[in-house]
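DM from R.C. (forwarded with permission)

"hey, sorry to bug you on a friday — could you get me a structure for this? deadline for the figure draft is monday and I only need the backbone to look sensible"
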Amino acid sequence: MLSEHVDEWTQKWKREGLREGLREGERAGKLEGKSDALKRLLRVRFGELPPWAQARIDAATLGQLDAWLDGLFLAATLEILLGGQPPGSRPPAG
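My reply, with the result:
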C-alpha cells in the first residue's frame, strides 16, 4: 500500500517538475527572443550598441523589454529609451 503511494507521489512530482521546466524554458525563450529583437531594432535605429546598452538589455525583465519595445520609435535617443548611460561609461571629454 505504501509503495503504491510512493509511486503515485513520484509520478506526480515528475509531472510537476516537467511542467515547471517547460514554463521556465518558455519564459527564457521569450526573454531571449525579445532581447535579440530589441537589440536588432536598436542597431537599425541608432547604430552599433555600446556595451552599457547591451548589458542593460541582457539584464532586463520581460516587462522592461516590452516597455522598451513599445517606446522604441518614440524615444529620440538610445539614452532616453534605456534610461541613460551608467556613471563612468561616458567617454572622456575633449
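R.C.: lifesaver. Residues 6-81 form one domain.
me: no worries. The two ends are 81 Å apart (CA to CA).
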